[in-house]
Amino acid sequence: MKIHPTAIVGSSARLGENLEIGPYAIVEDGVTVGSDCVIQAHSVLTNKVTIGDRNVIGYGAVIGSPPQDLAHNDSISSGVVIGNDNVFREYVTIHRGSKEGTSTRVGHGNLLMAGVHLGHNVSIGDRNIFANNCLLAGYVDAADDIVLGGASVFHQFLRIGAMCMIRGGTAWSKDIPPFTVGAIINRVCGINAIGMKRKGIGTENRANVKRAYKLLYRSGLNVTQAIDAGQSEDWTREGKMFMDFVGRRTKRGLCAAQSEEPIGTH
Predict the structure, then answer these.
(1) In 3-state terms, what secondary structure has residue 60?
(2) Cα 93 to the chain's mean position, in Å?
(3) Are 59 and 41 in contact (CB under 8 A)?
(4) SS3 label, residue 179
(5) How far apart are the C-alpha atoms of 72 and 200, rounded to whole Å?
(6) Per-residue pLDDT of the chain in tens (266 residues, 90 and over written 9)
């Protein structure tokens, strides 16, 4: 274990094996860190943070600090739970849960680039890539294999479906269906065919998602009618994921589609 002499590690912090903790890093009491992690200089792990194995915590990152929620009471017990094999680059901030017993959650194999912010009670899945300065407000729920372009921002309580690809510099306040490409504010422009192909999703399944997309956005039906019509259709796994997502409607509502776009995918 390599702990720099200027690092501060709480006496009750639980540390795994083969850790590196850099200069002036702070690991407070109540924090649990798994094995083979690297905690770089000036990073801060505070409150009830639980981190799995083989994670990299970048320079100046702060994980577990109180939420930016005016209704939050610092006396409550909440935390951050992080899986394995994640990389959090410079100055990433992840706030703990806002209510008693709740947590902000990060899965496995994610890359959060410099300046990414996860607000309180955010939940993100596995293998996501969030480019520099992406901002996720409280309770955002992001699935797996998502790519968020730099400086994209997301309103509280919205959902980001699996394998979305979101253009940098955009703002979102509505749920984004899985496998879609986000182009401008609350507008999608077809399906992420290249990303699906790279993930090994075959032609039939990609075509199935395209069919689900066209039912929702190009059939002339409203959302309720499209959901009802989809119940009588046979869907592959990915098509069903799309229809199940849009069927679980929330107060945020769904993103619209651009009026003119190439849906094309093979």
Answers:
(1) coil
(2) 13
(3) yes
(4) coil
(5) 43
(6) 899 999 999 999 999 999 999 999 999 999 999 999 999 999 999 999 999 999 999 999 999 999 999 888 888 999 999 999 999 999 999 999 999 999 999 999 999 999 999 999 999 999 999 999 999 999 999 999 999 999 999 999 999 999 999 999 999 999 999 999 999 999 999 999 999 999 999 999 999 999 999 999 999 999 999 999 999 899 999 999 999 999 998 999 999 998 755 444 33
